[in-house]
Design brief:
The protein is an alpha/beta fold. The protein contains 14 helices and 14 strands. Strand 5, helix 3 and strand 6 form a beta-alpha-beta unit. Helix 1 packs across helix 14 and helix 7 crosses helix 12. The chain is globular, with a radius of gyration of 21 Å. The chain starts with 5 loop residues before the first strand and ends with a helix.
């Protein structure tokens, strides 16, 4: 009997327990019979859900130090595992992709974001340098990805970009786990007159406009997630902050409970290049919890939310317009139940990890079968 294919997922930037990396991809591959390892800094080495987590202590805090020292340590740890396939989850890991290839390993790059477009709105990069850095980054990313055995992307938009340079490219979307779909949550009679935002917190995600809108609407906002440095002091000085309950980072159980207690989830992203064609996890996680979605009126999001009648899309850069959408929905319990039911139906039938899991497994099986 042949040994199962050994797969090594590696990350230098993500945390232990990352939903896409660990709970979705690694756990799914382990359940499908692959011998799965995950190399991640600053975690507890252990066997969990069939996945061998291998870690090391790393004190690097700056982005530059992480891109050099942490990446080197990740490589040293990962290559010792003698995997058949190495699955890279961060752009900074592309620097060591060639070393895995030279060792005779197959290499997959997992593009979670459209990095060149993302750079155009990075606050720590001077505005006058962003276009040049974005251009150079895309050239470098394409040059390396072209030589790899496969590319996995988080959205169809990113997939189409990489298909032009690597024919072995597949989109594995970040749709919710079926276990997170709360079938009865939209019927919860104990819902508060409150909305929630759960995820990374930054100015380009429209949080300032959202807080202002809640002040206008006089609606409570549960704000959960890691906040960029300096923003808490800025936001807490806003008059509308009295309508906000900031929870910081919340675990998966707390996130599910929070969604059950609110009448809507909000995704107020501003129209920066990396947002308009993105598919944020929270869109589908809100839908899967039976929570109507109030979000930005990007064309792609309107196809997902408004066409399927799961929520409303508005100009979230305008607090007055956003506030009115919040007020209108808060006063319409029939719409809340209908949109919640529609969201659950869409996630159950289409936007769920069970479908994406099969695509991932088939991608690996094809990669193992060919001699590329």
């Amino acid at each position: 009997m042949s040994k199962p294919l050994r797969v090594v997922h590696i990350t230098s930037a993500h945390k232990d327990g990352d939903v896409r990396i660990f709970h979705k991809e690694c756990v799914s591959l382990a359940a499908a019979g692959f011998d799965v390892f995950l190399v991640v800094p600053n975690a507890k080495s252990r066997l969990e859900k069939g996945v061998n987590i291998v870690s090391f202590e790393d004190s690097g805090s700056s982005r530059f130090r992480r891109a050099i020292r942490t990446v080197n340590r990740v490589y040293e740890t990962a290559i010792e595992l003698d995997g058949d396939i190495y699955h890279l989850h961060d752009p900074e890991l592309l620097r060591i992709a060639k070393r895995f290839k030279e060792a005779g390993k197959k290499v997959i790059y997992d593009a979670h974001e459209d990095l060149p477009r993302q750079i155009m709105s990075k606050p720590y990069i001077p505005v006058f340098l962003r276009k040049t850095i974005s251009w150079f980054t895309e050239i470098n990313e394409n040059r390396i990805a072209k030589k790899l055995d496969g590319v996995i992307t988080a959205t169809p938009f990113i997939r189409d970009r990489f298909l032009n340079i690597n024919s072995t490219t597949e989109d594995i979307n970040n749709f919710p786990l079926i276990s997170e779909v709360e079938i009865q949550s939209h019927l919860n009679s104990k819902r508060e007159k409150a909305i929630c935002y759960i995820g990374a917190i930054s100015d380009i995600r429209g949080i300032s406009e959202l807080i202002h809108a809640c002040g206008i609407a006089k609606i409570k906002l549960y704000l959960a997630g890691e906040m960029e440095p300096g923003l808490l002091s800025k936001y807490s000085q806003m008059e509308a902050w009295k309508f906000v309950e900031y929870l910081g980072h919340v675990d998966r159980d707390k996130s599910l409970q929070l969604k059950k207690n609110c009448f809507a989830g909000v995704v107020p992203f501003l129209a920066v290049p990396n947002h308009v064609n993105a598919q944020p996890n929270k869109l589908f996680e809100y839908m899967g919890s039976g929570l109507p979605v109030i979000c930005s009126d990007f064309p792609l999001w309107k196809l997902i939310i408004e066409v399927n009648e799961c929520g409303v899309c508005v100009d979230c850069s305008n607090p007055e317009i956003l506030a009115q959408a919040i007020i209108d929905l808060s006063e319409n319990t029939i719409a809340i139940d209908k949109m919640g039911t529609n969201g659950i139906r869409q996630v159950t039938q289409k936007y769920n990890w069970e479908i994406e899991k099969q695509k991932l497994i088939e991608f690996y099986q094809k990669l193992a079968a060919n001699g590329k």
